Amino acid sequence: MLLPAILYIAALVGVPLVLALLYSVGDVKVGSVGYRFVGLDNFRSVLENPGFKRALLNSFVFTIASQILSLIGGNILALALKDAFPGRRFVRYLVLLPWVAPVSIGSMGWKWILDSLYSVINWVLVRLHLVKPLDVPMWLGEPVLAMISVILVHVWHTLPFTTVILLAGWTSIPKDIPEAAQVDGAGYFRRLFEIEIPMMLPIINVAVLFGIIFTFTDMTVIYILTRGGPYDTTQVLPSLAFFTGILGSDLAEGAAISMFLLPLLAIVAWLMLRSARRAEVT
Amino acid sequence: MAIVETRKLTKTFRKGDVGAVLDVDLESREGEFLVLLGPSGSGKTTLLRMIAGLETPTAGEILIGGTVVNDLTPRERRIAMVFQSYALYPHLSVFGNIVFPLKSQGVERSERKRKADWAAGLLGIGHLMDRKPRELSGGERQRVALARAIVREPSLFLLDEPLSNLDAKLRASAREELEQFQKRIGTTTIYVTHDQVEAMAMGDRVVVMNHGRVRQIGTPAQVYDEPADTFVATFLGSPPMNLVTGAAGITGFRPEHFLPAGAAPAGDALTQRFRFSHEEYLGAERILYGALTGGLFDGAKVVSRIASTHAALFQSGADYDFAVEKRHLKLFDPATGLRRA
Amino acid sequence: MRIGRRGRAALSRVVHVGVLATFSVLLAFPFYWMLITTFKRTPDLYDLKNNPFIFNQPPTLEHLRLLFNETLFLRWFWNTTFAGAAVVVITLLFAVPAAYALARLTGDWGEKLGIGIFLTYLVPPTLLFIPLSRVVALLGLQDSLWSIIVVYPSFTIPFSTWLLQGFFKAIPRELEDAAMVDGLTRFQTFLKLVIPISVSGILTVVIFTFTLVTQEFVYALTFISSASNQTVGVGVPIYLVRGDVYYWGSLMAACLIASLPIAVVYNLFLDRFIAGFTVGAVK
Question: Model pTM?
Answer without folding.
Answer: 0.84
